[in-house]
Every structure is written in structure tokens, then in C-alpha cells.
């Protein structure tokens, strides 16, 4: 499928995706927690789409729905021309080899009782009929690709540092040459000097294996470093989505602006001159959502209209969508 | 600055932990001073000894840990020589600490007001009624809305940012001379982090408190610190004022750390990572502890550990390269 305007191949097309959780309040009352509430976006072949937002914005729930770890409540996901809803269980299973995930915590996402070579070869053994020798060769190639020494193949996960474990997780994720890799906070549990190693490794693998990434994180600097386009989420909604440069040079949504200005920059000479918007208050709860625009309780520019009506995500200019009644111009 | 402005003077601190395989030195030969109204940032990755340094100052090193030698002087009183009872008088009164995880450092069974009032009653001898007035005043100062109501709330009803404000209120309740903040914003979202950092700056200016800020985030350092101590594997490897360290880092580890941090406002930057990982404390390399990861390693680095050499302008570097090139490099 091709996008008419940009002539780029659409790998993933998400429309109106929703995930509501039922939570009990008291004995008989149930409430809906709207973790993800009708979001739509596209991912083009070969690009990296960053998804940023604070805790509770629904970014990880979105990732989990895309890999079918949790069932969606509504909306459509079309991956590589196939609608998730039309697939049989068997077809869904084989489709999963094309979508892989890298997890946040390299300590709990690897089975402590499996050797490295078993961890990395598991997807190959599950999805293909390769011989033992072929699988072994694949494992060695993968280990080399992610920068692990072959001699580690017979070791167990506890013998590795956090950064090395994340490399094992990455090798497992790319073992089947997937089309889409979802990285859910892949570096936030790692030390600063290791974070750069992993980011650079991911970018190298993307080039070598022609991968498409969805990079979910709360840290803006890393997302900016790796992404081609970025979606900003707030309380289950996408509030802005555009190219990386556009997002940082001409952010339109007040939340994006405050998010960018809240990042502490590693340069002491600008700390007193930098203009910042410091938001007041906390993120409201997903259960008792504010009326109208979800950001209006913290927005410095909110009007009466924002309290009553919820703005839709609309294209402000080509390739730059924003959900705000009063997008900021410069 | 005159000698009387020095709040804390740490000299040649050595802290070790006894393990099955002998003593492991977590902090080795650490010396620094903090002046009144100064913020000293201690930067380092996991296992660098930054938190153990803080706990040593607080007198919270418990068996099997032991402060082997060195002195910790809080306004000329050597804290390594006083007994537990005297320490209890100091803690919460003259020195206070804020921890990373505000939920685990608050007692879930007592109300917020109760917990903050405890220190005030104990150290200032106020009765419950007077203490309550003080506590509500404090809660208002750290930006907690509806302070009278929060006084009677339990910790679980507050958000992460609010809890950290409560921790700050508690730490500041007795106007300490020294405040130690151990990763105070690591568990918080970006927009909340900005609020808390702003609050700490404001309170420091009002009270002229000396602050030791422990963090791994160079952005937070650049935002907050006056001077910076970079720790690696239990030792200070570089010490300088914040502007010098960011503009002209001398130690290869500091350089690597800065190069692996995204600058954020630069377009298309390339991150350089530090190869390898932090050594564990029972497998310290011989010679300079950074030598397995250092790009400029020489034969001398493999044999001898360099000392922390004072250059002019008060900066200190632990590196043979700097030592040999001497003052000409400065």
C-alpha cells in the first residue's frame, strides 16, 4: 500500500485504535480506564516512528496491542496490507514473526534458565524448519551482528551486564528478519554510557537489515536521536505527530512545547537564559478524564471552548498533525 | 571563600563491604568540600560509589559495610567519631536526605502531617499544635495545593511528584545545613521533574542550604550544579566547577560521558559511546580503573593507578595523560 502524498510504502496503518480496561470501584460499580482512546497513525517502511509521553499516556499499551500481546477494544490495525481482524489464529501466529519487540527490562525479559543460544534461537526454532547446523550458524551471525562474542553462546543471562542482556534481547528480536520492531523503552534501564551503545547498535541494524522501528520512550533526547517522525501522546490520545525536525523547530501543541522545554539540557551556560514553560499540577487520572481537551487542566492557553469540546487530530500543514483548537504559531 | 563557609569537608573517605571473598571497596579515597549555598553534583553510573558516599555522610552504612578510614567533617565535627545517639540528633536536623523513590521512603501507615511533624517535634521541641502550623506552612512552601487536607492524607493518595514534594518538605523542616538529594527526580516524569528542580533551586536560594545532588543525568547536573565531582568505580576521577566540566572535560571518562549524552538542540548529531561496561567491585582492573574502556590507554595506565592531581583554577583530574602533560594542558 502506498501513501498518495508522500509516495512512501505504508507498513502499518492504525485507525481509531482503542483500549479500555474495566476497573472495579466499590462492589458493584465498574469504571472504564481509557488507556488508549481512538488513535490513528501510519508507519512507513524503513522509518523510525518515535512515540513519547509521560507515564499513563498509553504508549506502552499501544505497543502491546500492535504485537497482539493484549486484545484491542476497537479500531483497526492493518499491517503489511493485512487487517488483524481478518486473520485466523494460525495466520496471526505466522504474522507475528514479522513483528518483534524489544523490552525495557533486560533482567526480566530473558528466561534465566535458558542459555544465550537457546534464547536467540527460540524464534527460529518456533517459526522455521531449519536444521540444527543452520540454526547454530544463524545464532553466531546474530551474536556478531549485535556485538556479542561467540564464546558467550553457552552462558546464562545472569552472567551478563544490563547492556549485554539488552543485546541478547535485540538479537532475539531480529532473528527472524522481522519487518517491524517495536522497542519499548529499550534504554531507560541502562547506564548513560551504555545507552549510546544500544542506540547506535539499533540504528546500524536498521540500516543492515532494512528494519522499521517504533521507538517508545519517555526520554525525549533519545527519541529525537533515533526517530524520523515522532508522535506525542497525552492521556491516551495523540496530540501531535510530525517529522522530528518539524516537532522540535515548530511544535504546535502547547503540551509538546512544555515537554520539550522541560528537558534538562547538558549545557550549563544556557540554564539561566533558556525560556521554559513549567506545567502546573499533575497528569489527571485515566479514569476520571477531564472534559473537552484532556490537556486543558494544565494548559496555559486554555479557553472555555477547550473545556467543552475535544479537538480532533487534524493536518495543520502537510505531514504535521495536531489536536488543538489554537495551535501555536512559532 | 573563607574557611568558615565550608559546611562539609570529606577527606580520604574509604568505605568497604565485607563479602565472602574478602573486603570490597565501594568508595576509595574520596575527598571534597561543600560550601554554604553551594550545590555539588556527584555524577556517575551504577556502581560508581555515589550513593555509598551519600550514605557514609548520613551515617547509614550498616554491617557488613564499614567506613575504613577518612574523615567527614560537618562544620568541624568529625562524624566518623560520634556515636549513634549524637548522630540521631544531627540527622534530620543538620543534615537531611531526599531519596529516589518517594513511595518507599514514606511510611504508608502514617499521615503526611504526622511524618513531617515528627522531626519538628523531636528536634525543635514544639508541641503538636505548633508543629501542625509549621508543617502546613512548609507544605505550602513546596507548592502543595490544599495543604490543610494533605496534612491528613496518607502517602498512597498522592502522586509521585506530590510525594517528592512531601519528602522535600520533610527534609527542609528543620532548616538543615546540608541536604543530600539522591537521584531526586529519576522516578518522575519530565514535566514533574522540571517542577521539582525549580522548587529545589528556589528553596536553596531562600535558605542558603548546601546541597549534594547525586545523579546520573548530565542534563540535571547542568541545570542545578555549581561544582561537579565525576565518580567512576569508587573514585572521583574529575572535579571542577560546572562550566569548566561541560566546556573542557579533561578525563577520558568525563569526555565519554558527555559524548554519549544527546545534546538535544543539535541536528543530526552522532553519539559516541564508551566501549565496554563498568567493572564490578570485586573485579577491579589493576592500574587505572578506567583503563579497559579508555581510548588513550598506555602501558603506565595498566600498571599504576593515577592520583587525583590538582591543576590550577581548583580543578582536579585523575589521569596519567593530564599528569604527564602537566599544566601546559590547562
TrEMBL record, chain A:
Residues 12-260 form the ABC transporter domain. InterPro entries: AAA+_ATPase (IPR003593), ABC_transp_ATP-bind (IPR050319), ABC_transporter-like_ATP-bd (IPR003439), ABC_transporter-like_CS (IPR017871), Oligopep_ABC_C (IPR013563), P-loop_NTPase (IPR027417). The keyword Iron does not apply. GO terms for molecular function: ATP binding; ATP hydrolysis activity. Keywords: ATP-binding, Nucleotide-binding, Transport. Coiled coil: none annotated. It holds the Pfam family ABC_tran. It comes from the Bacteria. SMART domains: AAA. GO terms for biological process: peptide transport; transmembrane transport. Belongs to the ABC transporter superfamily. This is ATP-binding cassette domain-containing protein. It comes from Lysinibacillus telephonicus.
UniProtKB/TrEMBL annotation, chain B:
It comes from Lysinibacillus telephonicus. GO terms for biological process: peptide transport. The keyword Acyltransferase does not apply. Residues 8-258 form the ABC transporter domain. This is ABC transporter ATP-binding protein. It is found in: Cell membrane. It comes from the Bacteria. Keywords: ATP-binding, Cell membrane, Membrane, Nucleotide-binding, Transport. It is a peripheral membrane protein. Its main location: membrane. NCBIfam families: oligo_HPY. One of its GO terms (molecular function) is ATP hydrolysis activity. InterPro entries: AAA+_ATPase, ABC_Ni/Peptide_Import, ABC_transporter-like_ATP-bd, ABC_transporter-like_CS, Oligopep_ABC_C, P-loop_NTPase. SMART domains: AAA. Belongs to the ABC transporter superfamily. GO terms for cellular component: plasma membrane. The keyword Ligase does not apply.
Amino acid at each position: 500500500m502506498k501513501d498518495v502524498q508522500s509516495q512512501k510504502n505504508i507498513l502499518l496503518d492504525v485507525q481509531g485504535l482503542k483500549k479500555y480496561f474495566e476497573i472495579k470501584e466499590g462492589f458493584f460499580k465498574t469504571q472504564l480506564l481509557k488507556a488508549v482512546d481512538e488513535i490513528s497513525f501510519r508507519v512507513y517502511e524503513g522509518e523510525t516512528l518515535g512515540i513519547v509521553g509521560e507515564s499513563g499516556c498509553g504508549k506502552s499499551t499501544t505497543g502491546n496491542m500492535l504485537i497482539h500481546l493484549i486484545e484491542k477494544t476497537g479500531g483497526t490495525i492493518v499491517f503489511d496490507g493485512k487487517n488483524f481482524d481478518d486473520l485466523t489464529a494460525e495466520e496471526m501466529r505466522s504474522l507475528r514473526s514479522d513483528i518483534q519487540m524489544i523490552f525495557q527490562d533486560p533482567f526480566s525479559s530473558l528466561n534465566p534458565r535458558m542459555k544465550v543460544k537457546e534464547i536467540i534461537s527460540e524464534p527460529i526454532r518456533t517459526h522455521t524448519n531449519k536444521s540444527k547446523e543452520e540454526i547454530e550458524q544463524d545464532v553466531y551471525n546474530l551474536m556478531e551482528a549485535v556485538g556479542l562474542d561467540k564464546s558467550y553462546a553457552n552462558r546464562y543471562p545472569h552472567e551478563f551486564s544490563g547492556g549485554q542482556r539488552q543485546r541478547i534481547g535485540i538479537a532475539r528480536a531480529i532473528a527472524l528478519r522481522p519487518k517491524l520492531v517495536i522497542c519499548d523503552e529499550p534504554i531507560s534501564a541502562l547506564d548513560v554510557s551504555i545507552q549510546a551503545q544500544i542506540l547506535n547498535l539499533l540504528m546500524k541494524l536498521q540500516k543492515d537489515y532494512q528494519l522499521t522501528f517504533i521507538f517508545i520512550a519517555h526520554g525525549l533526547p533519545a527519541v529525537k536521536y533515533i526517530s524520523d517522525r515522532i508522535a506525542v501522546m497525552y492521556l491516551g490520545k495523540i496530540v501531535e505527530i510530525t517529522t522530528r525536525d518539524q516537532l522540535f523547530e515548530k511544535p504546535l501543541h502547547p503540551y509538546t512545547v512544555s515537554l520539550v522545554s522541560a528537558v534538562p539540557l547538558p549545557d550549563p551556560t544556557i540554564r539561566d537564559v533558556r525560556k521554559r514553560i513549567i506545567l502546573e499540577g499533575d497528569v489527571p487520572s485515566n479514569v476520571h478524564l477531564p472534559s473537552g481537551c484532556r490537556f486543558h487542566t494544565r494548559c496555559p492557553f486554555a479557553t472555555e471552548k477547550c473545556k467543552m469540546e475535544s479537538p480532533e487530530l487534524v493536518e495543520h500543514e502537510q505531514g504535521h498533525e495536531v489536536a488543538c483548537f489554537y495551535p501555536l504559531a512559532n | 571563600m573563607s574557611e568558615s563557609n565550608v559546611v562539609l569537608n570529606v577527606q580520604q573517605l574509604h568505605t568497604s563491604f565485607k563479602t565472602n571473598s574478602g573486603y570490597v571497596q565501594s568508595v576509595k579515597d574520596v575527598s571534597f568540600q561543600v560550601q554554604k549555598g553551594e550545590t555539588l553534583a556527584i555524577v556517575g553510573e551504577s556502581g560508581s560509589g555515589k550513593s555509598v558516599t551519600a550514605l557514609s555522610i548520613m551515617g547509614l552504612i550498616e554491617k557488613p559495610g564499614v567506613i575504613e578510614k577518612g574523615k567527614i567533617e560537618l562544620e568541624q565535627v568529625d562524624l566518623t567519631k560520634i556515636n549513634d545517639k549524637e548522630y540521631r540528633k544531627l540527622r534530620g536536623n543538620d543534615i537531611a536526605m531526599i531519596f529516589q523513590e518517594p513511595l518507599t521512603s514514606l511510611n504508608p501507615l502514617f499521615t503526611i502531617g504526622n511524618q513531617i511533624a515528627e522531626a519538628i517535634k523531636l528536634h525543635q521541641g514544639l508541641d503538636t499544635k505548633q508543629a501542625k502550623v509549621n508543617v502546613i506552612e512548609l507544605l505550602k512552601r513546596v507548592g502543595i495545593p490544599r495543604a490543610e487536607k494533605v496534612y491528613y492524607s496518607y502517602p498512597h493518595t498522592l502522586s509521585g511528584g506530590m510525594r517528592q514534594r512531601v519528602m522535600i518538605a520533610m527534609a527542609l523542616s528543620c532548616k538543615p545545613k546540608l541536604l543530600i538529594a539522591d537521584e531526586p527526580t529519576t522516578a518522575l516524569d519530565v514535566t514533574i521533574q522540571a517542577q521539582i528542580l525549580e522548587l529545589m533551586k528556589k528553596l536553596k536560594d531562600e535558605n542558603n542550604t548546601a546541597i549534594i545532588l547525586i545523579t546520573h543525568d548530565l542534563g540535571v547536573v547542568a541545570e542545578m550544579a555549581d561544582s561537579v565531582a565525576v565518580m567512576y568505580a569508587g573514585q572521583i576521577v574529575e572535579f571542577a566547577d560546572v562550566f569548566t566540566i561541560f566546556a573542557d572535560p579533561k578525563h577520558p571518562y568525563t569526555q565519554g560521558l558527555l559524548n554519549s549524552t544527546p545534546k538535544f538542540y543539535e541536528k543530526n548529531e552522532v553519539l559516541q559511546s564508551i566501549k565496554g561496561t563498568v567493572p564490578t567491585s570485586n573485579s577491579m582492573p589493576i592500574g587505572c580503573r578506567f583503563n579497559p574502556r579508555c581510548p588513550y590507554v598506555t602501558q603506565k595506565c595498566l600498571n599504576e593507578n593515577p592520583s587525583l592531581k590538582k591543576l590550577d583554577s581548583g580543578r582536579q583530574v585523575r589521569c596519567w595523560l593530564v599528569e604527564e602533560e602537566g599544566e601546559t594542558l590547562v
